[in-house]
Design a protein that fits this description.
heterotrimer, A alpha/beta, B mainly alpha, C alpha+beta, A: alpha/beta, Rossmann fold, 5 domains, 7-stranded mixed beta sheet, 6-stranded mixed beta barrel, 28 helices, 19% strand, B: mainly alpha, 3-stranded antiparallel beta sheet, 6 strands, 52% helix
């Protein structure tokens, strides 16, 4: 039974009133006279932290937001992006009508015509080129419902595996490593580890700017506990480095060497937990010299081979501190110190990482390597101890990964290649098992390449901006405009992707539709629809179902007598029950400030695999840790011996600098929302290129001078930032990617990790010239 | 010379100066500043009164400023002194245009010598108030900033003068109040460029004086048969030359008092 | 002119009155001691006002258009002098100081060679009750945008007493390094900036370290 929306909001309003004391709202108090103002809970629209907010609505418009004091994630605090949530829906150029391209212009058409056209184009493509040529580029910003409908639409409706999300660009390496290490995706800990640990290693993550509220929590821990150490391991000095107790700079790509170096010392000194290893860990090595995916149709699959601990010890000989120093620039003594910290029996160690590790041509490997450190020391799956992969998008976990909107995936960690998994899906989806295709087709990068080649003829992009966010965008923007391709983009604002579309569909945003997001700590959070979308904008879910009906499989989404969102979720929930991915009943999400999964017998499992907290683990053994999800490894985690291999494109005489890309606190991703908030745009109006002061001085470049960056794929003019908020290592430059007028991804290289297929946005070669 | 040739030429130059000031609105460094101090293609130009005020404030002028003052002073010393007023100053252009309004002849003219008093007051107040009084109040600067930077906050000063000249006294600012005019009339006293008077051709019609801003300066010629206008107050505007029906007046350069070289 | 008809005397008197009025108005001084942010190298207000020729060359030299010539209003001997309004456009501390180079009279002191040594004013968080960072949110945009980050402004952490598990990141200005450029005021996320550039604060002579 659904909790009535009105009852819910009354409760939320009371909570809001209690929490109102001392909390900032984004609009002046005068505007918030209580008459007609309702408050509803929702998670923030931006990063993977998943802060809770309360949304204030009057007369059908959002007039304010404030932090939700009852949300365990943030307890009423936000960063300045979250602070401005009330403004993101109201940019002037919000899309309100379907728009069809005619030459260089777009003309409004009716929804009926638009949806008929989409169905027609799909039919055409199916007839001429088959289901693989019908593709969907999905999103880690889709709600759980939208992702579920999209996945079912493609895999049970169309019968195509050509669906992949932009989460391929942010988390795929983490996923691949979770799967090949533990047999199950997503971290075993939760945000309380930030309050309970005392030694925090940050690997290639500017956490202060990219997960501000979580970093605030880590900093608070240090204020309360003088033992706490924050160690920032990075290629660039950031505000995180400034806050850290220790900054260790390494050369790009050499995190592989450094992590192995730390393992080397731990093994050499015998600091590893033998009993833990014997009980819970199995050792393997995989293929080496595995390429970089730069060629079209690159294909790779890893093969694991069991090794002994002695073989692993021998493997680590190449990673002595002295050898690591030569590769990475990290002093040998530092490697020793870091290892001692990791292994210190009196320290509760956590490792945090995001894009520095994941957007990496050996991303899966380096994720494996940080797990190795926790497996060697046994510091894993315990309160305040463990590796924690931070997520970039609000629902890369909740939607893309858990629902499985990937080419090779089905919900709840299942894969299309496994006939039993397909059978289970067919059962729940009520389609013949043959309908669900068994072979993965295109991951995100390859999908865009296939569009270029013509292997994909129909592409539907929803809720993200790949023609600004993909690597090597120059090629792909041109691809979208080729003859014989039909590109549909569903979005709320004009973007670089709508620019190259054939058909633009106006989408509802955030609280203009009911939805759920799942954040980095496995907490899925629900919100009710609170305002209507403007004009004729409609939620992506509706768009998909309307097309499904026109294509004859509308009954996949019919739940007679039930509320659609509720029914969709309860069907999806069936996938995860009983296998350690259990979600709670829908009513629980409606009521609570999110709920962590697995949710078993009315309780969330805060630390997975730990018998003290996880009933599934408890079924396996009485005490300790059980990696019960890794059935094919006999319920053990895998320690992978992964070597250092150089980057795909290394600086040389012609292109002597490394180019790294990333974010700033004030903007999110491609800036389509944050740049339309005047205060955020004013704060950071343009992307700048950061240079090390010595490099800048050598090239005669001063702060704010104009600079030309050129790679083998494109060039870009930018103003320089020297000695400001971020200082790259010598020989490196850094550019954020939020600025659609400065498309840095025209310069990046679409090389990727052969295992995860996640592109490396942190390493390619450029040259730098001053132009005035 | 064509009919009204000098007037036309003068108007052209005046408008070119306005255009030069306005060119700043388009950006670029061709011309920057106002007529108090500016750079033209990087060459400094500066007003001698500005330098004088700075010195009274105990500020040693910069080399840049001194060069600019030397260039400007040298230029106007050669070319008539108050030719700045008649040919360059934008305030003078505005008050020229006021002359088209009816009722000009009935307004009184105030004495030229008052400018000296104005200059004296300026220079005296400068060290007392601790700021360059002329630069602070100058309608020339205000008009320059209005044209060159769109800065209208000083426009009130200009309006004040225009109102006074419309209703109270004819050509009040340029004749009797402008301290800069006092300085340039000093330079004009020494300048070799002068209006020459051919007594034989003069019929005494006094059309020259009717068109002159400072008709006093022509009296020694017409009345006392002097061969040239000696007064520094003559702005070399050429209106008298244009007005004379018998070509008794011409622009000329004199090396000494006696020699004559005629330009017409 | 030898004759002075009576109405000429009146005219004279009227003119004199007008002149006096103009002088009084203009030299009367600004009401309220409002702080004006001057371009780099201006030094003390009295020093600057006695040297500035109100020519506008600095405004034209500024590549960002930060220096404005029409912001002084009518009052005082400040009419026509250049002013920076940081909330519109702050000073970006150009390394080659084109404004200083353009100044003909040395009102912007040519001895200033390093833009980071300019001392135009001192920033201060005036609106402590509005500042988002002080409320415990993660803002500190002023800190991150400061061209003298970690010198003129640092961040000090203390525990957020209300939540008990987050830290407050308070931006703290260090006046001995603050140039008064106003980038912080310009960047502030609030509609009315919480941090503003005000009068230059003298260096501390206080022996107590606290």
């Amino acid at each position: 039974m659904d909790i009535g929306r009105r009852t819910f909001i009354k409760g939320a309003a009371a909570a809001a009133a209690l929490a109102a004391a001392g909390l900032p709202a984004a609009f002046p108090k005068a505007a918030l006279a209580d008459d007609g103002l309702t408050w509803g809970k929702a998670p923030c629209r931006f990063c993977g932290t998943g802060c809770g907010v309360l949304v204030g609505v009057r007369n059908g418009k959002i007039v304010a937001t404030k932090g939700d004091a009852l949300a365990p994630v943030n307890k009423g605090l936000n960063c300045v992006k979250g602070y401005n949530l009330s403004k993101i829906l109201y940019g002037e150029d919000r899309l309100t009508k379907p728009l069809l391209r005619q030459g260089d212009k777009f003309v409004p058409i009716s929804w009926d015509k638009a949806l008929d056209l989409v169905a027609e184009k799909i039919r055409e493509t199916l007839a001429s080129s088959g289901p693989d040529a019908v593709a969907m580029f999905g999103s880690g910003q889709w709600t759980v419902h939208e992702g579920y409908v999209a996945s079912k639409f493609m895999k049970a409706g169309i019968g195509s595996n050509s669906i992949d999300p932009n989460a391929r660009f942010c988390m795929a390496s983490a996923v691949a490593a979770f799967m090949n290490t533990f047999g199950s995706d997503e971290p075993m800990g939760n945000y309380e580890d930030l309050d309970l640990g005392d030694t925090y290693f940050l690997w290639g993550a500017n956490m202060s700017e990219c997960h501000p509220i979580l970093f605030s929590r880590m900093t608070a821990n240090r204020l309360k506990n003088p033992k706490v150490q924050i160690i920032d391991l990075a290629t660039r000095f950031t505000r995180t480095s400034q806050e850290a107790d220790r900054y260790v700079e390494f050369q790009p790509q050499t995190d592989l060497a450094l992590a192995n170096g730390i393992a080397h010392v731990i093994v050499r000194e015998g600091l590893y937990d033998e009993a833990f290893l014997a009980e819970n860990v199995t050792l393997k090595k995989g293929k080496t010299d595995i390429g970089y995916g730069v060629e079209d149709k690159f294909s790779f699959s890893d093969k694991g081979e069991a090794i002994s601990f002695d073989q692993y010890r021998a493997f680590l000989k190449d990673y002595s501190p002295e050898k690591v120093e030569a590769i990475s620039g990290v002093p040998a003594a530092t490697v020793e110190e870091l290892a001692k910290l990791y292994a210190d029996k009196n320290r509760k160690v956590c490792s945090y990482w995001t894009m520095g590790f994941n957007q990496h041509t050996r991303g899966t490997w380096v994720n494996n390597l940080v797990y190795n450190l926790h497996l060697l020391t046994g510091k894993i799956a315990k309160p305040g101890e463990g590796p924690f992969s931070l997520t970039g998008q609000p629902s890369a976990c909740g939607t893309a990964r858990e629902v499985g909107t990937f080419t090779h995936r089905l919900p709840a960690d299942m894969v299309v290649t496994n006939p039993e998994h397909r059978r289970k899906a067919a059962d729940i989806w009520k389609v013949p098992v043959e309908k669900i295709p068994a072979k993965p087709t295109y991951h995100a990068t390859e999908m865009l390449r296939a569009l270029d080649r013509g292997d994909i003829r129909f592409l539907w992009v929803q809720c993200n901006n790949p023609f600004q966010a993909a690597p090597n965008t120059g090629r792909f923007r041109a691809a979208a405009r080729k003859e014989g391709r039909f590109v549909v983009v569903s979005d709320a604002y004009p973007t670089k992707s709508t620019e190259v579309a054939d058909l633009i569909l106006p989408s509802a945003m955030w609280v203009e539709k009911e939805g759920m997001f799942g954040n980095a700590e496995r907490r899925t959070q629900h919100w009710f629809k609170q305002v209507d979308p403007p004009g004729e904008a409609k939620e992506d879910l509706w768009q998909l179902i309307e097309v499904a009906r026109r294509l004859g499989f509308g009954k996949l989404f019919e739940y007679p007598g039930q509320d659609l969102h509720h029914a969709l979720f309860e069907e999806y929930r069936r996938f995860g029950l009983g296998i350690g991915k259990d979600l709670a009943p829908y009513e629980v999400y409606q009521k609570e400030r999110g709920v962590i999964w697995p949710y078993v017998n009315g309780e969330s499992v805060k630390w997975r695999y730990n018998t003290e907290y996880d009933p599934y683990a408890k079924k396996e053994k009485e005490k300790g840790i059980s990696f019960y999800k890794n059935k094919k490894e006999h319920k053990k985690a895998v320690l992978w011996a992964r070597p250092y291999e150089p980057a795909a494109e290394v600086p040389d005489g012609d292109y002597p600098f490394w180019l790294c890309t990333g974010r700033v606190l004030e903007h999110w991703h491609t800036g389509t929302m944050t740049r339309r908030v005047p205060a955020l745009h004013r704060a950071v109006p343009e992307a700048l290129v950061e240079l090390h002061p010595e490099d800048a001085s050598r090239l005669g470049i001063r702060n704010r001078d104009r600079v030309l960056l050129t790679s083998r794929r494109g060039s870009l003019e930018l103003r320089a930032s020297v000695g400001e908020r971020g200082v790259p290592g010598k020989g490196s430059v850094f550019v954020p990617f939020f600025d659609e007028h400065r498309m840095i991804n025209d310069l990046t290289l679409d090389a990727f990790c052969p295992i995860s297929k996640q592109p490396d946005y942190k390493k390619c070669a450029v040259k730098v010239e001053r132009i005035g | 010379m064509k009919a009204r040739g000098w007037s036309r030429a003068r108007r052209c130059v005046q408008l070119s100066v306005v255009a030069l000031l306005a060119s700043q609105l388009a950006g670029g460094g061709f011309f920057r500043g106002t007529l108090s101090a500016s750079t033209l293609l990087g060459i400094p130009l500066a007003d001698p009164l500005a330098a004088l005020q700075l010195m009274l404030l105990g500020v040693s002028p910069t080399a840049h400023l001194l060069l600019g003052v030397a260039l400007v002073s040298g230029f106007y010393l050669l070319l008539g002194g108050k030719s700045f007023c008649g040919w360059v100053c934008p305030v003078h252009l505005l008050t020229d245009l006021l002359e088209r309004f009816p009722g000009r002849e009935s307004l009184p003219r105030l004495p030229l010598k008052w400018k000296l008093g104005s200059l004296g007051l300026c220079l005296a107040l400068t060290p007392v108030l601790g700021l360059p009084v002329f630069e602070a109040l100058s309608p020339i600067g205000a008009l320059g900033r209005a044209i060159g930077a769109g800065a209208l906050s000083g426009a009130g000063l200009v309006l004040l003068i225009l109102v006074a000249e419309l209703f109270f006294a004819r050509r009040l600012w340029c004749r009797s109040l402008c301290p800069l005019g006092a300085i340039y009339s000093g330079l004009g006293r020494l300048s070799p460029l002068r209006v020459a008077f051919e007594e034989k051709r003069c019929t005494g019609c006094r059309r020259c004086q009717k068109n002159c801003l400072v008709p006093e300066v022509l009296e020694p010629c017409i009345g006392d048969k002097k061969s040239r206008v000696r007064s520094g107050e003559c702005s070399r505007c050429g209106s008298c030359i244009d007005a004379c029906p018998t070509r008794a007046l011409q622009m000329s350069i004199h090396k000494t008092v006696e020699k004559k070289e005629v330009i017409s | 002119m030898s004759e002075k008809p009576r109405h000429s005397r009146l005219a004279g008197a009227g003119v004199a009155l007008l002149g006096a009025a103009a002088a009084f108005l203009s030299l009367g001084g600004r009401s309220g001691n409002a702080f004006l942010l001057r371009p780099p190298g201006a030094g003390e207000p009295q020093r600057f006002l006695s040297r500035c020729l109100r020519c506008g060359a600095c405004a034209k030299a500024c590549p960002y258009g930060s220096i404005r010539m029409d912001e002084t209003g009518l009052a005082g001997g400040e009419l026509g002098t250049p002013v920076i309004l940081p909330r519109q456009k702050p000073c970006y501390l150009c390394a080659d100081l084109p404004c200083v180079k353009a100044c003909p009279s040395g009102a912007l002191d040519a001895q200033l060679r390093d833009a980071k040594k300019a001392r135009m004013g001192t920033a201060v968080i005036l609106e402590r009750e509005e500042c988002l960072s002080l409320k415990g949110l993660r803002c500190e945009v002023c800190y991150r945008n400061c061209p003298l980050i970690e010198k003129a402004v640092t961040v000090e952490n203390y525990l957020n007493a209300r939540t008990g598990r987050h830290a407050v990141y308070e931006p703290v200005i260090h006046k001995e390094h603050c140039t008064g450029c106003g980038i912080c005021e310009h960047s502030c996320i609030l509609d009315r900036p919480a941090i503003r550039v005000g009068e230059l604060q003298p260096e501390s002579e206080n022996l107590y370290e606290g």
